[in-house]
Write a structure and sequence with these properties.
The protein is mostly helical. It has six helices and no strands. It has two domains: 39 residues; 55 residues.
Length: 109
């Protein structure tokens, strides 16, 4: 059985991680700032703090979203136009750009 080592993080280490997590991956953070923590421990701490790198959206992708964002659901958009993005990422960018789903008028007799 493997023994697991619980990482204890100081406030200074946590602040350093928050400051640099966008610039470096776990291995680089380990080498530069946290030699006593494993890359897995660094990844776990980032996840525990909710630190994620935001997805990169190109201008072309944004233009496509502006053109088609009101016509499709976020799941349909991800499947049809953005295979490298999750539906949640598409939904977030659509909200960020202020795109709303088009309303459908239904006439009742």
């Amino acid at each position: 059985m493997r023994s697991s080592r619980v990482a204890v993080w100081t406030k200074e280490e946590t602040d350093t991680l928050k400051e640099h997590y966008l610039e470096y991956n776990q291995r680089e953070l380990h080498e530069k700032f946290f030699p006593d923590k494993t890359p897995i421990q660094i990844k776990n701490k980032k996840m525990g703090l909710g630190l994620k790198k935001p997805p990169v959206w190109t201008n072309e992708e944004r233009a496509t979203l502006l053109d088609h964002g009101s016509k499709y659901t976020h799941r349909e958009l991800a499947a049809k136009f953005f295979p490298d993005k999750t539906p949640a990422q598409v939904n977030h960018m659509r909200k960020y750009l202020g795109i709303r789903r088009g309303c459908i008028d239904i006439k009742l007799n």
